[in-house]
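All the exercises in this workshop are built on plain-text protein records. Sequence and backbone structure share a record, each on its own labelled line. The question running through the whole workshop is how a given chain folds. The record below serves as our worked example for the rest of this section.
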Amino acid sequence: MFRSKGIFLKRFSGALLLAPLLLAACGTAGRLDGIRSDYSRGDFTAVEKKTEGKKDSLNLLLGADAKFQNDKFAESDAAFEAVNRGDHSTGILGETARALSSQMATEYRPSMMDNLFVSYYQIWDALAMSRPDNARVIINQSYKKQQDMSREFATLIGKKREKSSLAKKLAGENAQWNAYKDIMNPALTYLAGIYFLNFAKDESDYENARVYFSRAAGMAPDAGFIKKDLAAAQNRRTPNGVAWVFIESGFAPKLVEQRIDWPTYGTSGVYTVSFAVSRPVMFSPMPAADGSALLADVDAMFMTEYGEYTINEALRAFASAAAKGALQVYANDRGGALGGLAATIYSMATTDAEIRTWITLPKHIRAVRIEKKKQGLIQLAAGANIISQLELEPDGNELIYIRFLGREAKPKIIRLNEQ
């Protein structure tokens, strides 16, 4: 019996030696907050450094986004592509943590919303590198992702379609797409339409543009200017002298841990039930650009997917608590007070909620459609605050990306007629 107890304690002590590795998960929230703070200051290079050399999917996403912001489009695209390939090896320490801990040390898997945003940014990367054919491939791949997402949320979409007053009032082709606005990425849909309108090679491309604009108009009913693009696609005519401006602002929700460590009395002594789930926290919105319209409410997209999977998280937390409670009872029986203490420490150290998200995503994506009348400087403002200044040519079309974080932002201007 003494030998058995000794072996048990020896093995448990070995597991506890890895406690620093497991407890490192406690620093996850602080690290993500730090990266968000870097973004707020516009210090994307700091994020690049913090994620450099890390091959897990979350660091790849964060690093790819930072590289995109720093105009390193080829490196950004490569990192996003690594996420698509599932190239997320974490080495021996990662595998050890994965085997011993609960949720936080397991590999972060991009959500379906994340996957659509990967496509969204890869399209921007491709166009910024003057590779419209690559953008076409990515758009086609993103359509498959959207089909997968619509099947995953088929029941929810059905309920939204039934309840949509817009769908009931309007008989138009685009009305039904209002049900998808909080599930798919309307900004990606609109961007795809702009692509096909400007790079149309034949009749089928104009038809693709028409379909995408029709969907975007349904998902973003406040963006009335999409009707102009839809009309151009229907008339099979690419407009001239137009600048499409996409403005990302603020941050998507973050997740915080809600945790309970409850001492419980049993026949073998006292043990602790540890239970942890996540809770979303919203950020305040940034001022909207004058004349802009909402394309994508990322908060709503986040909460739709989060709400669908919350029940699974709770079930996993209950199962984990029950299993670790049983482990503590066993440890008390086999290892006495010291064994029970070791099991309690282990249980608490390995109980955590999944709080990791792609925290650099925006809160809102808004758009402005500018019909250029003359060459010169155009200021985008939110009241008295300058968001960005655009130096535009009088002819040709431009696609413009802006990440607004409270101070004047440098735009990424892509000449569409020079690809």
